[in-house]
Amino acid sequence: RAIAPPTTAASWQRQRRLAAYLFIAPALLIVVAISLYPIAYQFWLSLTDWYLLQNPQPVWHGLAGYRRLFGDPLVWQSLGRTAYWTIGTVLLEYLFALPIALLLNRRSWVTGFLTGALLLPWVTPAIVAGYTWRWLLDSESGTIHALLQQAGLAGERSLLAEPGAVLPILTVISAWKGIPFMAIALLAGMKAIPPDLYEAAAIDGAGKVRQFRDITLPLLRPVTVITCLILGILAFYSFDLVWVMTKGGPGEASMLIGVYLFRLFFERLELSYAAVIGASMLVLLIVFSSGYLRALGRDPE
């Protein structure tokens, strides 16, 4: 069989590479249109002054918006609440999802049904979940409020109206919604662990606790790291659940940075300053995610 000359083979490879780029070009254009362009526009808008009640068009303002950001106490307070909300949400999701995944990993006739039912909180729209929980915690007709009141954990007012209790309550509800995703991800990681490892450990005399500590947890680390990062990003950008339930109140007790940004954009019409906060959130998230993956994303020894 004749072998093609090197020049012909190289030309064929170039044509094949060019064809591949042409095939993925529409997808790349869509990504640029719906992702990169809005991000670039946001950063440009953050360098302008666009207050709709004063300026019909954006006016170049340089870094004045970022100087205002560093001097805005409400931004730092909102970031502190958002950090509490994000860390608390992910931590509760992991603490509850891990034992659930361990139970679902045991083969049983009811396991498939429970796995499907577990997804209900995750697939429930945040708006629906928010209104449902707000009704359950209502001081007049809420079932959960009545139970908490009988247990001495709630007074006459709803816990959503208590400045000291509203953020922990919202964090628990946020975790409740994210536990199914975490549990299913951990369950998938457990299913991928070869059974031979447990058999070899059992032959060596390792009990269930030691197998869990030395085999399950280390091999679940990649799944845990990525899942916690995804759910942490979702929690950091959360807005809808808090907005439906409290709108950042009472006062500013549940004012997350996403809620503050929404109020600036749609209520106060300070588009440029809202863009400053949005751009800063993106940069902060990129820096944190990079450090998080560098610190925890390494494979266990």
Task: Tell me what the structure shows.
The protein is mainly α and 301 residues long. The chain contains 13 helices and two strands. The protein has helices spanning 6-45, 64-70, 73-104, 111-118, 120-123, 126-136, 143-150, 166-191, 195-203, 208-236, 240-245, 257-267, 271-296, and strands at residues 48-49, 59-60. The chain has a two-stranded antiparallel ribbon.
What is the SS-derived class? mainly alpha
The oligomerization state is single chain
Q: Tell me about the largest β-sheet.
A: 2 strands, antiparallel
Rg on CA atoms, Å: 25 Å
Mean pLDDT: 87
Count, helices: 13
Quick one: overall form?
Answer: flat
Q: Strand order within the widest sheet?
A: 1-2
Beta strands, count: 2
What are the key terms here?
mainly alpha; 301 residues; two-stranded antiparallel sheet
Please specify the SSE layout and strand pairing.
Elements: H1 6-45, E1 48-49, E2 59-60, H2 64-70, H3 73-104, H4 111-118, H5 120-123, H6 126-136, H7 143-150, H8 166-191, H9 195-203, H10 208-236, H11 240-245, H12 257-267, H13 271-296
Helix pairs in contact: 1-13, 2-13, 3-8, 3-10, 8-10, 10-13, 12-13
Gist?
The chain is mostly helical and 301 residues long.
